Predict the structure.
Amino acid sequence: MRSRKQLPAPFNKGTGLFLLLCSSFSAQAELRVFACEPEWAALTAELAPEAKIYTATTVYQDPHFIEARPSLIAKLRNADLLVCSGAGLEAGWLPLLIRQANNPAVLPDTPGHFLAAMQVDRLDVPEKLDRSMGDVHAEGNPHVHLDPHRVKQIAAALLPRLEQIDPQQAVTYRRNHANFEQRWQAAIQRWETAAKPLFATNIVVHHKEWRYLETWLGMQIVASLEPKPGIPPNIGYLNTIKSQLANRTPLAILRKPADSSKPSKWLGNATGAPALVLPYTVGGEGAEDLFSLFDQTLDQLLSAKTSATPQ
Ligand SMILES: [Zn+2]
């Protein structure tokens, strides 16, 4: 057995190599994730809390329109895993980022390229594509994260990717996923019980990113402020909605923090319906993680329901 004295001196070649191996191993052990939107960063963090997760956008940005900045390219270049919505949501910027980043680990059709919306059934897949219909998402509505059942399916699809990319941590990922799924299922039951009064209520939305929430809760979107998807609201169209809503005031007019407040405030004043800014994703008011995102969303909708119902 070697005594301490016989160990290599600090700066000899052997120790240098040993230190180098150690440092490259620890760098590899830390999974680096590039998430396009905060909801997917939050979901990845549930399964891989130790991972270094970079989120490309915040709740205050519209994920349809992001600039492919050099800082984003640099982050993607070093990522082991990309987690984005897909289904066309990032069509305006992600393909460019991927090209510029030139990182084989996150190329399409590799395990490191995970598109959440492509793991689930999507609503509103157009039968035919027609640009006259506005900025329609060809692969269906990509805003899938406001249906907790779909989030659960996406988490289950993300797990094998993590195991594949980082097999050393597979046991940990499986344990974290099981824990998340159990808490999430319990939360779904709680949310569905609480949300019963919202069933069959009418809502107006700014953009159709509330479709999955609507369908989950059995609400009904009776109008969108955008005359066509991706086309900003205008006063002529708002007046049309106002007359359509005469005698049937909706529960609320919903927008996300990144939407302009003017159109929904205008329609709110014109119809008497409250204009609500819901958190929309993690980072929005009161939404620190996926659980509080749904808690907050339901709280706001249920308070609108309570104030709208004559006592
Ligand atoms: Zn959209």
Q: What stands out?
A: The first helix runs from residue 13 to 29. Confidence is low (pLDDT under 50) at residues 1-27.
